[in-house]
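As noted in the main text, all predictions were made from sequence alone. Below is one such record, for Fatty acid hydroxylase.
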Amino acid sequence: MMRNLMHSGVDAIARMSTTRTNYWTELVLDTALGAWLLAVGWRHLDGGPWLAAGAIALGLFAFSFIEYFFHRWMFHTRIPLFEQGHRMHHERPLGYDSLPFFLPAMVLIALTAVLVVLMPFGFALLLAGSITLGYIVYGLVHFIIHHVRFKQPLLRRWAGAHHVHHYHPDTNFGVTTPLWDILLRTRYVRQPRKAV
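Prediction:
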């Protein structure tokens, strides 16, 4: 009974997560959270602009790994909520499949709380705000890659790296950067055609 109830709850959240409303609500909520974290972090930072720039750069770098980690080890595993939603995205890449609008904000707030305990308040908020900014950029980039047909060759190659992932799901987990695919050897490498 409890298992069926949990399974139907996961199914309901997964269905809700495929709607435009969920996608755009998440974007607005996360943008407001990120802007608030950056503004309050800047106001409470004990240091100058170089320290702020360092916190923001560190946060964006950290997010690049978080993006890779979640895509490779959470979305392509058997965690029902993540796996089901991501499988739907692979089946319908032009859909609005995303996480439930409230989940990323909850995770980002929890991460912020941990960072505030571990480091100075202003720096922690700037770091969390830039991780949030990275997540927002990732969401928009991923949406654009699937909904825009680029004419410029560099942009086509950039978008193509993610499209390859849909045909070779064990490769190209990075959407915004290939850095971790290169370092962890999951970047797709075209195999040469065999001579006949």
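The longest helix spans residues 121-147. Helices lie at 2-16, 20-43, 49-74, 80-91, 102-118, 121-147, 153-167, 179-183. These features were considered when defining construct boundaries for the mutagenesis experiments described in Section 2.9.
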